[in-house]
Amino acid sequence: MALIAILPGDGIGPEVTAEAVRVLDALSLDLTFEEALVGGAAYHATGHPLPAETLDLAKRADAILFGAVGDPSCDALERSLRPEQAILGLRKELALFANLRPAKLFPGLEDASALKPEVAAAIDMVIVRELNGDVYFGEKGFRTNAAGNREGYDVMSYDEAEVLRIAHVGFRTAQKRGGKLCSVDKANVLETSQLWRDVVIEVSALYPDVALTHMYVDNAAMQLVRNPGQFDVIVTGNLFGDILSDQASMCAGSIGMLPSASLDANGKGLYEPIHGSAPDIAGQGKANPCATILSAAMLLRHSLGLDAAADRIEAAVGKALTDGARTADLGGSLSTRAMGDAVLAALEGLKA
Ligand code: NAD
Ligand code: IPM
Ligand code: MN
């Protein structure tokens, strides 16, 4: 019996998480679910975005399914109390350093992509994003500088051990796929990136079967829309990976389609859509639940070793889409619940 922590969070988080739980339930696996508050919802109820009970559940669980955090009513709070600190805290406390963000275009979604259909059709890649370091976790603050001006600062740094462990994940991911790894950095300007590049090159000696290339992040952003089919696996830092994965999502049809896995060194993981709490559509039943449903599939594969069940979820999402099921972000009019129903119906059909 595996324990799955369900952390729905804010905005559309609870709406999309509910659909993913329905899909997991329908598979009749040996799972128990335990839910806890996180983000703005937790702050409003307890005064803290990541209460001790929530962190404890996340630590006890075999895997975590996470919705999204972020609540405009919390934007004026001091940073340590803001909803986003909950996801950052979980990633750090649980040492979830390896973030896998697969981006592929499901057949039929060519028209939803911002790219020309033939360019979009070729996207099938994984962004391996480092998740425990970079400018996200450096020293930060406000000060008055020598000129008497207010100044905000966030220190960007990586140490070699951090780069080494994510580089290995990048190479191993490429080995299991097309054998191509593109390391994305800004080594022409940043010392942090120079160290990144040096360490990735050192690690590459252990993976002669993987073709390693390097690309500056500005060029990578351009290449992603010019010809996303050229990428197999990208390995990059926390900030660049955050930005490039949102961009990749729109190449693949919608930000509502991209799942993610955030893994520690032992296969424990947190699984979440790459999108946020979408306050602009929250509470309206408009959100696309596919990214979260696909995150549940990643959970089964990466943390529980249930590959066949994961394959079935992915096939059901594919079938629902080829049958024409579409939420508004994909150019359709289905509600979040109706999209979940379509995936469940496809799952039933696949059983038969
Ligand atoms: P967002 O991803 O929440 O939304 C960006 C745009 O995409 C919005 O127009 C939204 O309606 C749309 N969108 C997002 N998910 C969708 C879905 N499943 N279906 C249909 N449309 C979808 O990004 P944002 O607006 O920049 O941020 C909103 C809040 O979410 C902020 O507080 C931010 O910090 C937070 N956030 C949290 C996470 C997380 O929990 N991991 C990730 C990203 C942003
Ligand atoms: C994401 C989000 C988070 C990030 C925020 C909410 C801290 O944008 O998961 O992509 O920047 O990592
Ligand atoms: Mn993001």
TrEMBL record:
Cofactor: Mg(2+); Mn(2+)
Boundaries of every Isopropylmalate dehydrogenase-like domain copy: 3-343
NAD among keywords: yes
PROSITE patterns documented for this protein: IDH_IMDH
Record keywords, A-Z: Amino-acid biosynthesis, Branched-chain amino acid biosynthesis, Cytoplasm, Leucine biosynthesis, Magnesium, Manganese, Metal-binding, NAD, Oxidoreductase
Catalytic activity annotation: (2R,3S)-3-isopropylmalate + NAD(+) = 4-methyl-2-oxopentanoate + CO2 + NADH
SUPFAM superfamilies: Isocitrate/Isopropylmalate dehydrogenase-like
Pathway: Amino-acid biosynthesis; L-leucine biosynthesis; L-leucine from 3-methyl-2-oxobutanoate: step 3/4
Site feature (Important for catalysis) residues: 136, 186
EC number from the UniProt entry: 1.1.1.85
Protein name: 3-isopropylmalate dehydrogenase
Species this chain originates from: Sphingomonas aliaeris
